[in-house]
Amino acid sequence: MWNLLKKTFRRTPPPVVAQVPVAGLAYYRAEDLASLMHRGDLLDLRHEPDNPHDANAVMIFWHHNKIGYVPSEYARELQSLLDRHDSLCGKIVEIDPHSEEHRWVKFNIYPPRKAL
């Protein structure tokens, strides 16, 4: 029982990168999914080496739905982290689909999901 409680209340490790906006929300299903997405939801990050615009591109998925990309200014660093860690995950820290901003989802990036 005690081990289960410790696992449940384990502290989240510090983020590798904090407050990253999701780019390209308007081009994917993010607006359709906005009412289902919440602060604290986990995101999967995947390197897309064959992307014709950026070999460092990192795609962002929420429950297997592509919602956008890590902005290019973060992508090179994250792509190298993905190569070292095999995987990284994100956690939504801010979401406001009614915002005037075109990047209305922000998330923190963490080591592989097993650390969360």
Automatic annotation (TrEMBL):
UniProt cross-references to Gene3D superfamilies, sorted A to Z: 3.30.70.2330
Molecular function via GO: hydrolase activity, acting on acid anhydrides, in phosphorus-containing anhydrides; nucleic acid binding; zinc ion binding
Domain HIRAN residue range list: 17-113
Keyword Metal-binding: yes
Keywords: Hydrolase, Metal-binding
Keyword Protease: no
Top-level taxon: Bacteria
Protein name: HIRAN domain-containing protein
Organism, scientific name: Cardiobacterium hominis
